[in-house]
Design brief:
This protein has 393 residues and is an alpha/beta fold. It has helices at 21-29, 68-72, 75-90, 105-108, 134-144, 153-159, 175-179, 189-192, 211-220, 257-261, 284-290, 301-308, 319-330, 334-345, 350-376; strands spanning 6-10, 35-38, 42-43, 49-54, 59-66, 95-99, 115-120, 147-150, 166-168, 198-202, 225-229, 246-250, 266-269, 295-297, 314-315.
């Protein structure tokens, strides 16, 4: 199998945002090969230029800083040219393109990777503020990508008819990391002041949360304390439910999450049921369980199946049902739950997921090699040896 290549990832999520699927996978990839993680542009006061930050020996984050003229003008063409220069500076010549956002195809049409991967972790077109052309870009990406990964079963069922090489890789978990919560006794200062019982959530606080449900449950049980961890994005913070027993503690570092989970009586997945959540597969589901927490969730399809069906997670959608489910969760025999969770999560790890993804990629590169070799050695172009030559014009 062909193993000599770098990974160039184009992502709508910033590396220093919430630590989730891209970080889990690409940090493991970086243990074996170079990874260049390209974020979306930011506005800068000076001339357009890259902000390049090494994060480890093999992992580099690059952010295109654009002047106001470039930011508001032909932005895609500007960034595409900047990518060429970045590749030259970083000496990237043999690489796999790894997409998290279909919008990035406009930046990379001229590139010639040894393979291209679309890791589809969400139905981005259904999110608040989504570009009206994202569906067109995704259709183009399905045409050009060699491999499509999906972050859950629902997404797989939605996308499998759109591409001939789709593989489902649901959310994995770092069991050892979150398992620390089962033994932790120390308490973060901002949570220590909050009495129990505590019902907690961590993650992005945005339009996907059922704010009416959270408000209703908090109103129904003022003796319960609701701990909400995470950044507030895409919604006005004033629209969040505000009660004395709802506590917004802000974003927390991934390494600190087990210490918060250790103090929760119940972990929550209070997602709204709408188009933005139709295909989500919350990574936090196995993370909550690995931490030893009983979990209550709304009927998100990829939570109901398999977690709800296996009675690992309580499912409820109305205020009354959610309160009842939380009461049942608090009465859970944690030792018995943890034994069943451990059996279910056995072998489920980001290490194993990355290893399987790597095998798919290397196999595809091997099958692509003859065709790409013919193209690269064609006498029709003096630029045949250039890694940035246009292969899809």
């Amino acid at each position: 199998m062909d193993k000599d290549f770098d990974i160039v990832c184009l992502s709508h999520l910033r590396w220093d945002f919430v630590y989730q699927r891209p970080q889990h996978l690409l940090s493991r990839c970086a243990q074996e090969r170079r990874v260049l993680f390209i974020e979306e542009p930011v506005l800068t006061d000076g001339e357009s230029a890259w902000r390049v930050t090494p994060r480890s020996d093999n992992l580099t984050v690059a952010v295109p800083g654009l002047s106001s003229a470039d930011f508001n003008g032909n932005q895609d063409a500007v960034v595409a040219g900047m990518i060429d220069r970045l590749f030259a500076e970083q000496r990237i010549s043999r690489y796999v393109l790894w997409y998290y956002t279909p919008m990035a195809v406009a930046l990379t049409r001229h590139l010639m990777p040894v393979a291209s991967v679309y890791d589809c972790m969400d139905e981005l077109s259904a999110f608040a503020g989504a570009s009206p052309i994202i569906r067109l870009r995704e259709a183009e990406l399905f045409e050009s990508a060699d491999i499509v990964f999906t972050g859950g079963q629902s997404l797989y069922e939605s996308k499998r008819r759109l591409h001939g090489n789709v593989h489902v890789f649901p959310s994995s978990v770092d069991v050892a990391h979150f398992g620390q919560a089962r033994e932790r006794t120390d308490e973060p200062a901002d949570q220590a002041r909050i009495p129990g019982p505590r019902l907690g959530f961590f993650g992005v606080i945005d339009e996907r949360l059922d704010r009416e449900l959270i408000d209703g449950v908090a109103a129904a049980r003022p003796d319960w304390q609701f701990v909400m961890l995470g950044p507030v994005v895409k919604i006005d913070p004033s629209q969040l439910p505000r009660r004395p027993n709802i506590h917004y503690l802000g974003a927390k570092h991934y390494t600190d999450l087990p210490s918060y989970l250790a103090g929760w009586d119940v972990a929550l997945l209070p997602f709204a049921r709408n188009e933005s959540t139709r295909f989500i597969s919350p990574t936090k589901t196995p993370e909550y369980l690995a931490a030893g927490c009983p979990v209550v969730s709304t009927s998100i399809r990829d939570v109901v199946r398999p977690y709800g069906e296996m009675r690992l997670v309580h499912i409820a959608d109305t205020v009354d049902a959610f309160v009842s489910a939380a009461e049942q969760a608090m009465r859970t025999d944690r030792a018995a739950l943890q034994a069943r969770v451990d059996a279910f999560l056995d072998g489920n790890s980001w290490d194993a997921t990355w290893a399987r993804m790597r095998t798919v990629i290397e196999s595809k590169i091997g099958s692509n090699a003859p065709a790409r070799l013919v193209e690269a050695t064609s006498p029709s172009s003096e630029l045949a040896s250039s890694p940035l030559r246009d292969s899809r014009s």
